Amino acid sequence: MLTPYGPGGLLVGSSGLLNQFSGVFPNQGSAGGGTLVTLIGSHFSNATAVHFGSRPAAAFAVLDDQTIVAVSPAGSGAVPVTVTTPGGTARIGSFYYLYWPALSAVIPAAGPVGGGNVVELRGINLSTALLVHFGDAVAFPVVLSDARLLVTAPPVAGPGTVPVYVTGIGGVSNRLPYTYAAAPSVTGVSPATGPIAGGSTVVLTGTGLSLVTGVRFGALPATSFRAYSDTLIVAVTPAGAPGPADITVTTPGGSVTVPAAFDYKAPSATVVTSTPDPALVGQPVTFTAAVTGVPPTPGTPSGTVTFDFGDGTAVVTAAVTDGTATVSHAYTGPSGTPYAVTATYNGDTDFTPSTGTDTQVVEAAPTTTTVTSAPDPSPVGRSVTFVARVAVVPPGAGVPTGTVTFDFGDGTPQMTLPVSSGAASVTHAYPNAAADPYPVTATYNGDANFTASTGTDTQTVQQAATATTVGLDPDPSVAGQPVAVTATVAAVPPGAGTPTGTVTFDFGDGTAPVTAPLTDGGTVTLHTYAGTAGSPYPVTATYNGDANFTGSSGTAVQTVGQSSSATTVTSTPDPSTVGQQVTFT
Known about the structure:
- It contains no helices and 59 strands.
- The protein is mostly beta strands.
- Strands 13, 15, 16, 19, 20 and 21 form a six-stranded mixed beta sheet that branches.
């Protein structure tokens, strides 16, 4: 028969100590029942019932006189396990009912595909957990308490979400999702620069970004960040020191760092000045751009400054040295004055771009005009070339255009000629000589870029030389025959014009000279030589000059021959008588 426990908790029978390993194995199980339990004792061969507390076992089987296998019914708490045989009922041990484990949280809820990260499971009834399942992979937990487990996530083949659940003595828990994340990558950062004060919204593109848990700029976490997809994160930069900073993105799949991906830049200020201001057309103007960091930023900006002079010419880029960039520019006209000048600092690794503006006043440049003539002096009628040269008075510069008006000082109409390459020229022939030089004036009339100016000169005009030629008709002649003596007076080149005045003829025969007026440069007179005694006679025509032409003489010779004679004889009376006196004439 079965007897109660003896000293030491060992089941004893009538024959004394039977089995020192008696008891219930395992002595705990699910409150829902179904736990296979082995009972060890003695005298079990004729067992008729097994009870867990007041409830019979769901099933049992006697294996031998010392062993029964039973299936626990549903129950709760700690209950005695008893075996009933024809000889009576004896308590074999106790069985403790355990409730199903339940999960409330998986922290973190994601991790790398390679596993290895520690995951905390929270819930209830976790103290008897045996395994933790990550989909098809399993891990052995470390029990911290009935409400907490720690487990190292096992590796899986690829990214994705798997169910996590616990198998324990109390049963199988509910399932919570756990995501295996691929390692992140960052392929784009825009913008890649921003102020040191932070606050820049930066878009990060790449892959594996949807579960982002952290974004850092250098050593500092982003002010805020959010993943909008697996390929895009928007982060706001924290304040940082000037210079490049690494960007680190952390996800459950790991971390990726992009070296020097974001360039913190301090704000800058650019001030542009010019000298001289105002300036003249063509005068070089020095533009200076001073670039400074906005206090309290330390350091000196470097890089380049691009100058726009506001006159449509090409921009000029100059290097910044010790915070200053300098260029020189000459304006070709005042049409846009005051010109809007812009100096744009293009930034560097530490400073943001900035722009400074100024205005530049440009005035028309003064000029001087000089006039020269050639030849000087000149004879009457000769063409004289007058050249007016227009020059810009320094510091102005450039090539004037427009016109020059010439006044020759002789009362003739003025002449206006265009300026080409800074000069204008004209020819003029003076019709009259003058005791005093003619005053010549060349007036530059100015243009949009240059002021008017006047130059003066004098031109001396002298009498032109003349040549007198003598013509005789007929030549030879005979005594008593009228001869036409012609004098032609012409200006000797380069003189020109038509002489006026008188010509005095000397016929070379001792007769009185004859003076005749010139008409259109010529005159003619008749002279009759009385005899041949002086033949050939030297004939001289002397031009007596006028206000514009000098006197001159021309000579010729006139041959005078004897005149032909005819003798006629007459008689009276005719007829006459013999002896009558006849007069012959």
